[in-house]
Design brief:
Among the domains are: 141 residues, Resolvase, N-terminal catalytic domain (Rossmann fold), CATH 3.40.50; 134 residues, Alpha-Beta Complex (Hect, E3 ligase catalytic domain fold), CATH 3.90.1750. The protein is built from 17 helices and 17 strands. The chain is extended, with a radius of gyration of 35 Å.
Length: 555
């Protein structure tokens, strides 16, 4: 059978014969790493828009552009936004210059074309590939498979070449610099050389001086904060003339200090090849071990003596090794005394998370406490702390009390259901709701009649406004009664489906002892208040608050 033309011979005056206009999202992408064969964003948009402009049943609804984004995965801002608009029904299809614009990974591209788009009922147009899913030019054919596979192989081959080029450039020189580290500026006379930043370099020198004197990282961060030293994030944003938005960019943290103290750039060394991206091996982005780094000694002026820097690194490695050995020695104790409230306990004074601290001496467990993360949080210094057994006991008491109250409520509901009270109250609530609905309808009818009389001149404007205010007042009161009746009827209807037996059985199974399973199911958070009391926030509705509503509904 000959292929049918897209054109129609139906007259323009027959709207029923008109095809539905398909709203197409035009997707364009370039990768700065690969160049993408000179397919600029402008050219892609023009080619696709011209093609759609010649179609009688499609229009351009919007453009989605990822400029400088790799096609080896689908984690692209505009691409994900386009998929979201497809799911939300804001566009009906996707149009691109060719399949390589959608992606160069064979599996992901084919999954998107063959599964995602058909599942959403979306139309696909690939101009250079001659694909229009509406016209039967199916993207499932052998030709599309071969093109997608070649795109994937092309991407991997380019990745291999680029990786080899960068590796050779690092070894041949000059030094390849990425982000300029805190404390340095790029040399105006040589883009491959660093010079100390007169504003931030003194803070780096002070940081190392304090560490060499034995100060902990938290203390160093606090001193830098007090001295008004700009953070690394803030300095980076200031150089770019932008406002710092990241939380880490606004204040110093011990983890930031720890990261900077381990950076060899401050000893005058440049370490290249810390990270690798080998798409041809299926490695998207991972950190290399220090043995694989290419380190250039004496690359620029150091901010700390290289010998002192190496000593700090040895001391850090020794501390890490001692901690690793200590964790291995206390593994059995940690298994016997786990943190059943991990991530749920917070300090109400400083707002920081509280972590469990197990006291062990000569292999003997003496006890455990939750301690907040700031050494200077308490009055006169020191951490806020609370015994783990006390926290677990309070949580268990709260849960038991809630379950007991729920059981009592279920027993009350069962007794009221047995004597017919629940059924009568439910009927009364339904009657109240019907009465409120009827009153609302009557008032609305009167309002319509009043407006008609006013328009005919049968009611004066003064009387119209007075009566209208009265009607609106009555309407608001009736709507309030309707809401109350709806809530009461809904509550009573839900109570008629409940029972005490299941709750009693569940209580007996779960409440034998405090467990992580019980904590995860029942506890949202625990806060140690400034006066030493504990506030427990539950993951379910407070049974005591619910009890007042239920008793009122049954009364």
């Amino acid at each position: 059978m000959a292929r049918k033309s897209r054109r129609t011979d139906a007259p323009a005056t027959a709207p029923a014969a008109r095809a539905k206009v398909c709203r197409m999202g035009v997707y364009a992408r370039t990768s700065k790493s690969y160049g993408d064969d000179g397919s600029s964003i402008g050219n892609q948009k023009r080619i696709v828009a011209d093609h759609i402009g010649r179609l009688p049943d499609a229009v351009v609804a919007g453009y989605y552009v990822d400029d400088g984004a790799t096609g080896t995965n689908q984690d692209r801002e505009a691409f994900q936004r386009m998929v979201g608009d497809l799911r939300a029904g804001r566009i009906d299809g996707v149009a691109a210059k060719d399949a390589s614009r959608l992606g160069r990974d064979y599996v992901e591209c084919q999954t998107f074309i063959r599964e995602t788009l058909p599942a959403l009922g979306a139309r696909l147009i690939l101009v250079a590939d001659g694909v229009d899913s509406k016209d039967g030019a199916s993207p499932d054919g052998f030709g599309m498979d071969v093109k997608s596979l070649l795109n994937s192989l092309y991407s991997r081959d380019l990745s291999r070449k680029i990786h080899a080029t960068f590796e050779a450039a690092r070894r041949r020189g000059p030094i390849v610099l990425g982000n300029v580290p805190y404390g340095y500026l790029r040399d105006p006379a040589d883009a491959h050389h660093l010079v100390p930043d007169p504003e931030t370099a003194p803070h780096v020198r002070e940081m190392f001086r304090m560490k060499l004197a034995g100060a902990p990282n938290a203390e160093i961060a606090r001193r830098l904060e007090e001295a008004g030293a700009p953070t690394a994030g803030r300095a980076k944003y200031d150089r770019a003339g932008k406002q710092a938005t990241s939380k880490d960019s606004r204040r110093w943290h011990a983890r930031n200090v720890n990261r900077m103290l381990a950076n060899p750039v401050y000893a005058g060394r440049v370490a290249m090849g810390k990270w690798t991206q080998k798409l041809y091996l299926g490695i998207p982005h991972e950190r290399n071990s220090p043995e694989e780094w290419l380190v250039v000694e004496g690359a620029h002026e150091p901010l700390v003596d290289p010998g002192d820097f190496d000593r700090l690194q040895r001391e850090h490695e020794e501390r890490v090794a001692r901690r690793r050995d200590a964790l291995a020695a206390t593994e059995r104790i940690r298994e016997l005394h786990p943190d059943r409230l991990a991530g749920k306990v917070r300090c109400g004074v400083c707002g920081s998370a509280m972590h469990i601290c197990r006291w062990v001496e000569d292999g003997v467990f003496w006890g455990a406490e939750y301690m907040c993360g700031r050494n200077d949080a308490g009055e006169g210094g020191g951490r806020h702390r609370v015994a783990v057994p006390l926290v677990e006991t309070v949580c268990m008491d709260v849960i038991r009390s809630q379950v007991e109250q729920r059981v009592a409520l279920d027993e009350l509901v069962a007794s009221r259901a047995a004597d017919g009270t629940l059924a009568r109250r439910l009927a009364e609530a339904a009657a109240s709701l019907a009465e409120a609905e009827a009153e609302i309808g009557e008032i609305e009818e009167k309002a319509v009649q009043l407006k008609a009389e006013h328009s005919r001149g049968e009611v004066s404007s003064a009387d119209y406004r007075r009566i209208e205010r009265l009607l609106w007042s009555r309407l608001e009161a009736a709507r309030s009664r309707r809401s109350e009746a709806e809530a009461r009827r809904g509550l009573l209807a839900s109570l008629s489906e409940g029972g005490a037996g299941a709750v009693l059985g569940e209580a007996g199974r779960l409440l034998g002892s405090f467990s992580k399973e019980l904590a995860d199911a029942a506890i949202e958070s625990v806060t140690l208040e400034g006066d030493g009391s504990l506030s427990v926030r539950l993951r379910f509705t407070d049974a005591y608050r619910k009890a007042e509503t239920i008793r009122e509904a049954l009364s």
